[in-house]
Design brief:
The complex is a heterodimer of chains A (118) and B (234). Chain A has 118 residues and is mainly α. Chain A has 5 helices and no strands. The chains are: A mainly alpha (118), B mainly alpha (234). At the A-B interface, α1, α2, α3, α4 and α5 of A face α2, α3, α4, α5 and α6 of B.
Chain lengths: 118, 234
Amino acid sequence: MMYVIQFAIILAICIIGNMLHDYLQLPIPGNVLGMTLLLFLLLTGIIRLSMIEDVSNFMLKHLSFFFIPAAVGLITCFSILEGKWAALMFISVVSTFIIVVVTGATVQILMKRRQYRE
Amino acid sequence: MSELISPFVRSPLFGISISLLTFYAGSLLYKKTGSSLMNPLVLSMVMIIVLLLSFHISFDDYNRGGQFISFFLGPATVILAVPLYRKINLLKENVVPILAGISIGSVAGIVSIIVMCKIFGFDELISVSMIPKSVTTPIGIEISSQLGGLPSITVAAIVFTGVAGVLLGPAVCKLFRIDDKVAVGVAIGTSSHALGTTKAVELGETEGAMSGLAIGIAGLMTVFLAPLLAKLLM
């Protein structure tokens, strides 16, 4: 399907997600509602993957490009973060460590238990 | 700023073109070195910040163009459903271990972040910006602004986390004898999103697929968990 139509479908879902967020006052961000909605539409077959596939693949391939302005915005936070950089990195590293261990151990224990039962 | 180039700097073209150019340069470096640490986003961010600082160009001038790029964050979040849809069968095969692992791991991560922010005496603005730092960037930005944080700090923390996951993920799994392929993949994807997944893909097909699956699920779960835990603990 044509790129323009594919992108229009994605934008429409995005808009519906944001409208749901605004009107229903849901605590979930509109774009995330849009993501859940798209997943639902794909799973139920209302939207076929081919209807959005080319644009999705293109955007997913270059996804991090769209984060550049948000990342550059760090420049406006330099004064708030002064003297806190080491702590920020420390927290990032330690929490990553904790998540890897807790997630990995939980999945592994449950997988082993299941295999044992079988 | 010289009179000659200042109209260019003030037009949206400036922000858009330097973003494209630096991202292109970053992507080339990434391809040449093949290292997941040569992240095009990080390289592009550093180049632009250095450029803005050295020519005394304000962030507002840059963001006149930048906001057009940020507009695509909405559609970029929506299409995260596509990789999740493609991998949904993997989830069906091991639904309980995967969902339990991601939810317990995400709770542990958020709690540890809040506790450490308290220990370091961070104010609420920074703490709240740190909470969604383990999820994929578009969802992290959303959660951060919803909690009243600064999305730019979140993006920086997300990138640190991704690099930490690439460097530590496989070694930590080995150290704690986590050798089940599904467990390793889910652990890396939950802790360090797409950046960690580049490393998981190197470990093997199952690890890579599971890590990719975990990105979307961890993102969705954190949307619910972050406000809840923030309210409870802060």
